[in-house]
Design a protein that fits this description.
Layout lengths: L8 E8 L15 E4 L2 H4 L3 H4 L7 E10 L7 H18 L4 E5 L12 H13 L5 E6 L7 H6 L2 E4 L8 H18 L4 E7 L15 H6 L8 E7 L12 E7 L2 H17 L10 E2 L1 H10 L5 E5 L14 H7 L2 H4 L4 E8 L1 H10 L4 E6 L9 E13 L2 E8 L2 E6 L8 H5 L8 E6 L6 H6 L3 E4 L35 E4 L6
Parallel strand pairs: 1-3, 1-4, 4-5, 5-6, 10-18, 11-17, 11-18, 12-16, 12-17
Antiparallel strand pairs: 2-3, 7-9, 7-19, 8-9, 13-14, 14-15, 15-16
Helix pairs in contact: 3-4
């Protein structure tokens, strides 16, 4: 006869993606992958290993999608019901662990993560339930969200090399609260700064020091978290934010104010994490380089930051540059989502002539005529790819929105980066694998839904004042608000 566990019970659920208001793409239900069972638990090594066995963690559905345009409301509603069904089936729960991003936009809705947290809390058992959240530091954290989630935390690195550690930290915080019976309070502060991700990389200052300062919290503080925010969401919640959790109300307020004021104090010091300039300047830099591969980040349409993947304006410039098309050494531009272009290439076959307009698949208002030879065709579980060669330039067309952010991504289409003179890539700061292989790198400030020149954005709904759009004043006073019930045993 089995004995029922007396441990606290917690369910892991989530819906996560990152959405640009300026992307013509819309994220549909088919864009999401849904993890269940062991595929959820493997995201939390401390849970999977049994290290936190004082709490019975149960894997519910966790849905994730590649960043892009706002989520269709019908898709969100469908995923939400799947999450809520799983939560209701085991309710009441002692705790919930939300595995989310923090910058999800849903058509017709503001603050989707707060809606998710509210609905999940209601389904799990209401106010007694302790909610934790593991998030991306590029989330926009509203006062409503801070009031709903007891134990939120986020990555401390960009690029995000600490994802498993962050999810484990959230799980440990939840286990600590459930086992101890302590319901900690939290202090939240909106930081009126919105900066592009490529200016807030923790590889460089001032973000490196800001995040390093979170590692050793003062007495009475359980967790200190800093979100740099997501600048391409045209919503009132768009801004950086700090949340500090703990039992000592004075300590969490002071620490929250310290973090917020420290961020504001260095707002003018944030700069691009690598040499940056126009695409013309970047191509000049590549032409002057003697290294291989030299990498240019085509930043405005980065699909892992919310780009639609269908912007062809960089391709137009490459085709018009004889140093690219007729120069010494191979050049690759990756990648443009254009299913019709891929089908056209498949129809003519390898070695066949390709001639057609590409780009604007989701509605970006430009297309480019591409003429060349079908050099390579690939079809596998990740989708269909056609490589079109025009002189020395290889243009990568994909049937799906596809990032090329590692050597393995290029090896899939038989491109050896070590033999490629110039790689022009829809990416921002280089992910670790490309960072290691690149022998020279610059950021090109190009057009797209995640244009790094955020002063170019047609923002209409953000809350002002907001740096760099406005003068936020100096000295700036941190407005710290307490959330939650306080330290209740």
């Amino acid at each position: 006869m089995s004995v029922a566990s007396t441990h606290p019970r917690a369910i892991i659920v989530g819906i996560g993606t990152e959405c640009s208001s300026f992307a013509p793409h819309r994220t549909s239900l088919s864009d999401f992958g849904i993890r269940v069972g062991s595929r959820v638990l493997e995201r939390f090594p401390a849970v999977q290993s049994g290290e936190l066995d004082a709490v019975d963690f149960v894997a519910g559905p966790v849905a994730r999608a590649l960043p892009g345009g706002p989520v269709l409301r019908a898709a969100y509603d469908t995923l939400l019901e799947e999450v809520l069904d799983a939560v209701r089936a085991g309710a009441p729960w002692d705790g919930v662990l939300l595995d989310i991003h923090g910058a999800m936009l849903v058509d017709g809705m503001d603050d989707a993560e707060a809606d998710l947290a509210r609905r999940v809390r209601e389904a799990a058992g209401g106010q007694p339930v302790v909610l934790a959240a593991a998030m991306d530091l590029h989330g926009n954290v509203s006062r409503d969200f801070a009031g709903l989630v007891d134990l939120p935390t986020c990555y401390r690195t960009a690029p995000h090399v600490d994802e498993p550690e962050t999810r484990d930290r959230a799980a440990r915080l939840l286990a600590r609260a459930l086992v101890s019976g302590v319901r900690p309070a939290r202090a939240w502060c909106r930081i009126p700064v919105a900066l592009p991700g490529e200016k807030t990389s923790t590889r460089v200052e001032p973000a490196a020091s800001l995040y390093a300062s979170l590692a050793d919290p003062p007495d009475g503080v359980w967790e200190a978290a800093l979100w740099v925010g997501y600048a391409w969401a045209d919503e009132p919640r768009t801004a950086a934010a700090a949340i500090v959790v703990g039992e000592d109300l004075g300590a969490i307020q002071r620490e929250c104010a310290r973090i917020a004021k420290g961020f504001v104090a260095v707002r003018a010091d944030f700069d691009f994490c690598g040499p940056a300039g126009s695409l013309a300047w970047a191509l000049d830099a590549a032409d002057a380089a003697s290294t291989t591969p030299f990498v240019i980040s085509d930043t405005g349409d980065n699909p892992t930051a919310g780009g639609s993947g269908d912007v062809p304006t960089t391709l137009a410039a490459l085709l018009a540059d004889p140093r690219v098309v007729s120069g010494a050494g191979d050049v690759v531009w990756s990648a443009l989502v254009d299913p019709e272009g891929v089908l056209r290439a498949q129809d003519v076959g390898i070695g066949g002539a390709f001639d057609g307009d590409v780009g604007g698949w989701f509605g970006w208002p430009s297309r480019v005529r591409l003429r060349g030879v079908v050099h390579r065709l690939v079809s596998d579980a990740a989708g269909d790819v056609a490589v079109i060669r025009t002189g020395q330039l290889q243009v990568v067309l994909t049937s799906r929105r596809t990032p090329f952010h590692s050597r393995q991504d290029y090896a899939r289409i038989a491109i050896d980066l070590g033999r490629t003179r110039l790689v022009v890539n829809k990416i921002g700061y280089l992910e670790p694998d490309l960072h290691r292989v690149s022998d020279g790198w610059v950021l090109a400030l190009t057009d797209g839904p995640v244009d790094q020149r955020i002063d170019h954005l047609d923002v209409r709904r953000v809350r002002h004042p907001l740096h760099p759009f406005d003068d936020i004043g100096d000295p700036w006073t941190a407005q710290v608000e307490l959330c939650g019930p306080g330290a209740i045993r």
